Amino acid sequence: MDYPDNGITEINQNNKKVIQSKYNSYVASFGGSIIQSGLLATLMIFEANKEKRKIIETLVNLYNETVDDDKLTKSDDFFYKTLESKEESQVKLIRNSLIDMAVSLKLAMRCYEQVDNSNS
To answer: Beta partners for 17?
Structure first.
């Protein structure tokens, strides 16, 4: 099954999907940012940046695929605003799931050729 990647892959001149290396860096920093700053602050920071937002949208799509209820939706075009209304225990479960999914995404990104940011 081919899942939407929210624009983190591109088609190169050989018609193969490639990933800009900056997205690898963004995913790598996501988990550490959550540990250091918290989920809410990390979502705010990533959603404020157009390129980093693609990582959040990909992770939230993965999260929503794995849960039957309590899906994350945008409130005023941001995911972090949805978390403000959730109980602390729910936020911790979402936090842990998003960290796990970031690790999975990082591993999956290894299947693609990575190109330097300046080549895109």
So the answer is: 11
**What stretch of H or E contains 18?**
strand 17-20
H/E stretch holding 113 reads: strand 113-115
CA 67 from chain centre, in angstroms, equals 16
Ordered by start, the domain boundaries in the chain are 16-115
pLDDT score recorded for residue 17: 83
Residue 45 CA to its chain's centroid (Å): 12
Strands 9-11 vs 17-20: parallel, antiparallel or unpaired: antiparallel
Measured CA distances, 36 to 27, 42, 50, 110, 120 (Å):
15, 9, 22, 25, 31
Summarize the confidence of residues 49-63 as an average pLDDT: 91
> Which pair of structure tokens corresponds to residue 97?
């799931």
On the CB side of 29, how many CA atoms lie within 13 Å of its CA? Answer: 13
SS (H, E, C) 54-100: HHHHHHHHHHHHHCCCCCCCCECCECHHHHCCCCHHHHHHHHHHHHH
